[in-house]
Design brief:
Elements (H helix, E strand, L loop, with lengths): L14 E4 L13 H4 L19 E7 L2 E7 L2 H18 L13 H10 L6 H11 L2 H7 L4 H4 L3 H11 L5 H21 L19 H8 L9 H9 L1 E5 L5 E5 L5 H8 L3 H5 L6 E3 L5 E5 L1 E3 L6 E3 L9 E4 L2 H8 L17 H15 L8 H13 L4 H8 L4 H8 L6 H12 L5
Antiparallel strand pairs: 1-2, 2-3, 4-5, 6-7, 7-10, 8-9
Length: about 425
């Protein structure tokens, strides 16, 4: 026998579609706004279907009532169907569609701030890259839902608009955009997004542009006398009328630690006398476990390392003798903090270089010079040199720190002439 149709409400429908202008909801006896005729109920029930007011979909998520408006009944009913299906199939994992209607750019800044492995200086670089006008122009006033579907626009941004920028720069922007959307998915703001897997196209740059950009990155070897002046500081004469002798402070032994042992600048600034040790066989080494914080107030784990992770670096006799003559404690004490801050060290270096006529100097230059000189002297020791530098692979050493030696062209030319002295 056919079953009798039920008049019960369809519980699968998880939202209600209505218009707030419907006077059927006009209740002056219980609503204060209705009582003073200041409510939204302006249309008679027969006029509601054709009036210009928007349709409202009312629903609830996690026991909280939400609403969303649509221009047409079809849009409202489509949303109602999608919402009902999602709530039935996803259950507790249901994502509120309204949650994604928030501005995207502030979430990007929050994502950068929440990067657990990035330091203050790295976060500042990320924010600087992401502040590119082309990025702001594309994403300003965009909601999370809009950006979640902008895979074509983001590809255009990264590979065409910003196509002449370096891969690392574009990769940072991609990481922030995609990472912010991933975080939204994790928090339930979005069900998913379409920007995963965007690849960077090869950089579009002319040979002239590339050479101009990398001209200042060429290794400029410093003489031992120049290194000594960077360490000890120099005396200069100041004043156009009353000429006075003034001293520009140097960076102390940190410069020699970079030049002779390949330490990073903050590693060198954070070294203490107790870190220099001697084994039973007489081998002398630096037990490097910490680096100075940016402000010089404390020590923190080495770059890309966890607390307690270390590396032992061989110590040349010259540096060992210098250390033994110094007092206990930090070898590079700051004016007000236990260690010289990074900004103080950088300013001193630039100031000294200006008076010495050294151009293009950077805090990593002496470390670069150590790596290039060590590899030039012992090419087969690449793996060991990479370990001393604290790299996670020899590819990092080859890519960023190894430069052709000063007489490379002469030596390679001699090798070629020796090989082809006689015609075949």
């Amino acid at each position: 026998m056919p079953r009798k149709s039920s008049s019960a409400q369809n519980t699968l429908v998880q939202a209600t579609v209505f218009k707030k202008c419907d006077r059927a909801n006009h209740k002056p006896e219980s609503n204060k706004l209705c009582a003073i005729d200041a409510c939204q109920h302006t249309c008679e029930p027969g006029q509601v279907a054709d009036c210009a007011h928007k349709w409202t979909v009312r629903y609830s998520v996690n026991s909280r009532q939400r609403e969303q408006s649509f221009g047409t009944l079809t849009e409202a009913q489509t949303f109602q169907l999608t919402l009902s299906t999602g709530k039935q199939t996803q259950g507790a994992m249901f994502t509120d569609p309204r949650a994604g209607i928030v501005e995207f750019l502030p979430l990007c800044d929050a994502y950068i701030d929440g990067m657990a492995r990035a330091g203050a200086r790295t976060k500042a670089i990320y924010r600087s890259n992401f502040a590119n006008p082309a990025v702001a122009e594309l994403l300003k006033r965009r909601s999370v839902l809009e950006v979640a579907r902008m895979d074509a626009e983001v590809k255009q941004l990264l590979n065409v608009t910003l196509g002449h920028y370096q891969d690392e720069y574009r990769g940072t922007i991609r990481r922030i955009i995609v990472g912010t959307l991933d975080e939204c998915v994790r928090r339930g703001t979005l069900p998913r997004h379409t920007l995963t897997g965007i690849e960077l196209a090869p950089r579009t740059v002319t040979a002239e542009q590339y050479e101009a950009e990398h001209a200042h990155k060429q290794l400029i070897p410093l003489t031992d006398e120049q290194v000594k002046m960077l360490a000890d500081g120099i005396t200069v004469t100041t004043g156009p009328v009353r000429r006075r002798a003034g001293h520009i402070a140097g960076l102390g032994i940190a410069v020699w630690l970079q030049r002779t042992m390949g330490l990073r600048i903050r590693e060198a600034l954070g070294v203490r006398k107790a870190d220099f040790k001697e084994r039973a066989d007489g081998a002398r080494y630096l037990h490097l476990c910490w680096q100075s914080s940016l402000d010089g107030r404390e020590l923190e784990p080495l770059k890309h390392r966890k607390a307690g992770e270390y590396r032992d670096v061989p110590v040349p006799d010259m540096v060992w003798d210098m250390v033994q003559e110094m007092p206990d404690g930090p070898l590079c004490p700051g004016p007000r903090n236990p260690y010289i801050s990074y900004n103080t060290a950088r300013c001193r270096l630039v100031n000294l270089a200006g008076h010495l006529g050294i151009t293009g100097i950077r805090t990593h230059m002496l470390r670069h010079q150590f790596a290039s000189e060590a590899l030039d002297a012992s090419p087969r020791e690449l793996a060991n040199i990479s370990q001393v530098l604290g790299h996670d692979s020899i590819q990092t050493t080859l890519k960023f720190y190894i430069h052709p030696s000063a007489n490379a062209e002469e030596r390679i030319g001699k090798m070629m002439n020796d090989r082809w002295a006689a015609k075949p």
